[in-house]
Amino acid sequence: MAKIQYCFYVLSLILLCYCEDKCTETLQKVEECRQKGYKVKRVEDCPVIAENSLSCRRETTCRKAVKTAVKECGYTCGEKDGAFRGVVANNVNKTVYIITPTYNRPTQLAELTIMAQSLKDVSNVLWLVVEQKMHTERVSQFLSKVSTPHLHLSSMGRVKEGNLCNGLRNEVLDFMRRYDYQYRDGVIHFANLNRVYAPQAFEEMRKVERVGIWPTERSWEQFRCKPFEFYPNQDGLRYPIDVGSIGFSSNALLDSDLTFDPDVSDVEGMSRMVAGLVKSQADLEIISCEGKFVWYLPFYSVKKDYGKDETEEEKDSA
């Protein structure tokens, strides 16, 4: 037994000496990323220094260190020796958080069905559906049959007037900020139910680093890339971007105290949100200039109750 313990001790010393340089290098990379505002993420089977350690000497061996990786800075675990190697940052694993406000109206289930079909085969996505009042039975039953990971939220009647969609978006942002640690390192997109998405759209969203934009077909708000400009901009907004055309870093958005004004339109609300996260148009990330993977297709007024028109509230799109 003593011999075994001695061998283990010698092996530990060898590992410590071997890993010292690697741990020091990793600490430097962790600190570099922290200074840039990035977070340290955990991965499996990657023996590197603990994120809260100040010195490698505090660890008996590297194998006792917390398993972490600085994913956002583009480092990953080596295939053979567990060391870090520089790589191009990988967006594949970014979670896309789709926030969809909805409330009672004749086309509600049809719109939810279209969105659910768009999300059906998309990986690493969480669909946050928020209702205006209480959880309704029909939406609960609908979501119970949806395979996409989702959360069913409601404003509990707190959102009563103004732009209901903006108010409901605020409810979800408030929820996500309360449980901030669960929604880090992803991309947030506010998906109204009158937009139709190709599955490619959600893969493109993963490219967003802070604020990224792409076209929405058939929408009023558009942009050109050469030279970059928004058109038309009759309201004089700083960033007149369609709701379906923009994605936000979850870290950047949740770390801010930005909210949507319930007294303004969707587009103006988005413009103000963007203005709070970028300094100028040059800071916007052009994910695509000509990509055709999001369409604005509103459901027009329909008849219900044997000819009775839907209410004005129901005509609004969510």
What is the succession of H and E elements?
A: HEEEEEHEHEHEEHEEEEHHEEEEH
Tell me how many strands there are. Answer: 17
**C-alpha end-to-end distance:** 70 Å
**Structural class by secondary-structure content:** alpha/beta
Tertiary shape:
globular
Proportion of β residues? 15-25%
Compute the number of helices.
8
Uncertain parts = 8-20, 39-90, 302-317
Output the strand order for the largest sheet.
Answer: 7-6-5-8-13-10-14
Structural features, described:
This protein has 318 residues and is of the alpha/beta class. It has helices at 2-35, 108-119, 137-144, 164-178, 199-205, 250-255, 266-275, 312-315; strands at residues 41-47, 67-69, 75-77, 84-86, 96-102, 125-131, 150-154, 187-190, 195-197, 211-213, 222-225, 228-231, 246-249, 285-286, 294-296, 303-304, 308-309. The protein is globular. Mean pLDDT is 76; it is low at 8-20, 39-90 and 302-317.
